[in-house]
Amino acid sequence: MDFFCSEQKEKQLLEELNEITEKQSGQLRGRIKSGEIDMQMYQQYIEYLNQVLKSGSETDMFDIYQMCQSGAIKEATDRDVTFTGSVRDTKIIFVSEIDEMKLHKDVQLGRIQQNVCDVMDKRIGKIQSGTFDVMCRPALHKTVGIKVDGDRSQPYTYGITVLVVDGEETLVVTDCSNTCLKSIYTKNNKSRHSKLDLASNPHSVTRLGDNQVAVSFWSHNEIVMVLVTPDLVLESRVTTKKKYMGLTALSPSTLAAGCTDPPCVDILDVSGRVMRSVSTLDTEKNLICNPSFLCATDRGDILLSDAVSQSVYYITQGGDAVFTYTLTGERGLSLPRGITTTSTGHILVADYLAHKVILLTPAGKFVRDLLTSQGGLQYPYGLMFCDCKLYVGEYSGGAVKVFTCSIPQ
Fold first, then answer.
1. Three-class SS of residue 61?
2. 409 in any annotated domain
3. pLDDT over 60 at 171, yes or no
């Protein structure tokens, strides 16, 4: 009987080891694929540099300077170094559980323990589910309807954010036409929702913490803090001196808020106190007109889309302009709305009138149209990228379309 127990335990341990090996191998394969794409990108940079050096164009040289200032290449390199170190330190440990060599049918001979593997899992978070592929063709994963019982009119989706609460993906949206905030999630394999009525028409929603969001309004001097459990619970109301439409969290205690009258971007603490205000860029140039959609970058800077100037701005918290994206023609923006960033630092912008989502490099260079009306996209408004999925809120469609954009592993 003891020999039979030993064989069973050996088989169990081998199965556990195979499962762990396959998991780590899958992560490594995805990382290798990501590295190959990075190498292609670096090769393109080198070719571009050679062309600029030959031409002597000061404009192109300044573009290169902006790309370096954005830190896109350095961040990618740092990410690779961190991962390599994590893999090198990965170990599988067998922990013995034999007590004084007494074997019987209930004995536990040992277990497989992951120590550094767990650390690696935490460090590479987004890599586990794939890295954003610049050349991917987004596939429609699902369509989430946001119309719920009690709605007085057709929902208009403005702001979108995504949280994971108790292991469940929770979509949180502002519904301007029904003057409420909604959360949509799955529990016990059933689709559920929560609805929080608000005092005025909400505009933007941003994630403050693991289970907390902040909401701004169209024409109301207030920002509200809401707990997501995943049901919605009003936590606090903060009266502000200005009416803020655009809103993004720079940290759990700091917000960047866009005001249209007067046009500016303010840095606030969660009590509503203005710590800094930015209204002009680069010595009175490029006046901000309509900062109604904001997004924080991994560096703590601010991206904003401006429908009046038909531009995208990348600014620091101090008000310095890293770049401005303003073009006409096919690559231009007719009415930019929602803006978000990917796991690789690329920028996605919803163009409401052109029925498309465009992709920019981290340095603000046009890459391509990621989504268009040919794929069924109509009047994109809110935008959120999370875990290699792109959430697009269609203005009057009463739904959020979820697209997958990743490298298969």
1. helix
2. no
3. yes
Residues 17 and 119 grouped into a single domain: yes
Q: Is 124 in the same domain as 143?
A: no
Residue 133 lies in a domain: no
Identify the CA nearest to 345 among candidates 297, 293, 407: 297
Q: Dig out the tokens for 141 from the structure.
A: 């994963």
The HSE-up count of residue 372 (CA atoms within 13 Å, CB side) is 6
Does position 25 have pLDDT exceeding 70, yes or no? yes
Cis peptide before 230 (omega within 30 of 0): yes
Q: What are phi and psi of 146, to 5 degrees?
A: -110, 5
**pLDDT tens digits along 292-319:** 999 999 888 999 999 888 899 999 888 8
Number of domains composing the chain: 2
The DSSP line for 215-239 is EEESS-SEEEEEEESSSEEEEEEEE
Residue 115 sits in the same domain as residue 156:
no
Cβ(131)–Cβ(407) below 8 Å = yes
Write out the H or E segment, with its range, that includes residue 174: strand 168-175
What's the DSSP call for residue 281?
B
Q: Give the whole-angstrom CA distance, residue 21 versus residue 29.
A: 12
The residue with tokens 């505009």 is 203
| 134 found inside a domain | no
One domain, residues 106 and 250: no
Helix, strand, or coil here: 302? strand
